[in-house]
Amino acid sequence: MANHKSAEKRNRQSQVRRLRNRANRTHMRNVIKAVDAAIVTGSQEDAQTALSVAIPVIAKTASKGTVHKKNASRKVSRLTKRVNKMQVAA
Question: Which residues lie in Basic and acidic residues bias regions (predicted)?
């Protein structure tokens, strides 16, 4: 347990950041799931729309420091690759 005033403040800040990071990460995962669902249904328009919504959310999550920027870049790249592959197949 924190014994100093500064340690107590640091503990409060850590809790707030943890909850904020958790919310950001959950939002990112949900938009990724939306892209996956659109790909599974086979709707090109829905997949492209979901991807255009997901890319800024993933980028924002990385810019806030919740995930590493290379992790975000990899997620965007893989999602884009899957959507493009779906369009080529059709």
Answer: 1-11
CA 78, chain centre distance (Å): 13
Radius of gyration in angstroms for the set of CA atoms belonging to the chain, rounded to a whole number: 18
Asked if the model's pLDDT at residue 87 lies above 90, the reply is: no
Phi and psi based region of residue 42 (left: phi greater than 0; alpha: psi -120 to 50; beta: remaining):
left
- Specify whether the backbone of 37 is left (phi greater than 0), alpha (psi in -120 to 50) or beta: alpha
Q: Give the count of domains, the chain.
A: 1
Mean residue pLDDT of the chain comes to 95
Stated pTM of the model: 0.89
Residue type for 89, please? A
Q: Which residues span the domain enclosing 19? A: 5-89
